[in-house]
Amino acid sequence: MRGKLAINRLRERPDLSAEVVTQFVTKYASPIIEGQRATFLFRGEADEVFVRHRVVGLPDPLPMKRLTGTDLWAATVDLPAGSRVEYQLEVRRGEHYERFNDPLNQRVAHSPMGSSSVCAGQGYQVPDWTQPDPEARSGELVERHIKSKALRRDQRYLLYTPARFNTVLRYPLLIVHDGPEYVQFAAMKTVLDNLIHRLDIAPMIVAFVPPGDRLREYPNHAPHARFLARELLPELEAAYPLVEPPAGRCLMGSSFGGIASVSTAYRYPGVFGSLLIQSASLVFTDIGQDHGGGPYFDPVVKFVNKYRAKPTRFTDRMYMSCGIYEPLITPNRSMVSVFREAGITVKYEENRDGHNWDNWRDRLQAGLSWLYPGPQRYVYE
């Protein structure tokens, strides 16, 4: 009896009254985590109910089954320890479909696309350094503007300077693609304040740069690369005491921001000594042109195919991370050896998560502390 899942013990009860179901849902909520199994629940009248997600390896939509004689629906999946999954529920009533966050789950993640419910597997914990620490001094985050000839617009960005900023010291520079999103959805200012306070990372200056049309400007776009290397970088170097290049310069980004970081550094080899890329859209083809990503990925595939055919050492060090539950895991795994064979020092890490902002947030300590270690380990290899 002890080894049975809670939902199965409920199914075996002879008295599945509404009151019994209410007591069950009140006790367990959703999802129910039992070892390496997760059971999703929904209560309500419907013709069909599904769990919608983006986890490679699980059916999507994942159908839920109704417990006979009740309005309770359930679906159970394997969920290895340490996993974190974002999902929603989809309900069909006649011809009408409705999709929403799990009403029985209070854990929610946010992104530019909206919010999703979070299923945290056994052992997963939100890192404490992502939460506000009253003992950590706050760095300054201000909005700035630069008139860009390359982009033909007035480009705004957010600039972070660490607490106790001192003009007689030198600081590494980090330029972040999708910068405001990293601040809003990955708590990156809080993370920087905490990690600097804990001496995990060196105090640094960070430019959080938003895109214009990211699907056009991020995949190997010459004007975007020229803006970063020939306009923004000189302005920041003139205004702030930075670590001597290229060791003190790092480009960062996730998804399309990852490919923007790689392609910019490739266009200006030796300018940026480090890259921090997360779930980068490093899509390529080994034969033919059918990459399955749609027209926005055409310039990505063209660039990555070209690089794979003739790898070069355009930067010194690269931190890469990717979730094993996302489609990009295969191209990211493949590119690690390509970058290393070109002479780039690569640290690559995988985790049981998907293509989302909390995943990228949770990897910030590992990436930043490796590229820019704290004062007690402040060296560049």
Number of domains: 2
CATH class wording of the largest domain: Alpha Beta
**What sort of overall outline do the alpha carbons produce when their principal axes are compared?**
globular
Oligomer: single chain
InterPro entries: AB_hydrolase_fold, Esterase-like, Ig-like_fold, Ig_E-set, Mycobacterial_A85_antigen
Pfam family, one: Esterase
GO biological process, one term: carbohydrate metabolic process
Task: Describe the protein.
Pfam families: Esterase. InterPro entries: AB_hydrolase_fold, Esterase-like, Ig-like_fold, Ig_E-set, Mycobacterial_A85_antigen. The chain has 381 residues and is an alpha/beta fold. It folds into 2 domains: 94 residues, Sandwich (Immunoglobulin-like), CATH 2.60.40.10; 250 residues, Rossmann fold (3-Layer(aba) Sandwich). Helix content is 28%, strand content 28%. Strand 1 and strand 2 form a beta hairpin. The longest helix has 18 residues.
Task: Reconstruct the topology from this structure.
Layout (H helix, E strand, L loop, with lengths): L5 H6 L6 H11 L3 E3 L2 E7 L4 E6 L8 E2 L1 E2 L5 E7 L5 E10 L2 E5 L7 E4 L2 E7 L19 E9 L4 E9 L11 E5 L1 H7 L2 H10 L7 E5 L4 H4 L4 H18 L9 E6 L1 H12 L6 E5 L19 H12 L7 E7 L5 H13 L3 E7 L5 H6 L1 H8 L10
Parallel strand pairs: 13-14, 13-15, 15-16, 16-17, 17-18
Antiparallel strand pairs: 1-2, 2-6, 3-4, 3-7, 5-6, 7-8, 7-10, 9-10, 11-12, 12-14
Helix pairs in contact: 6-7
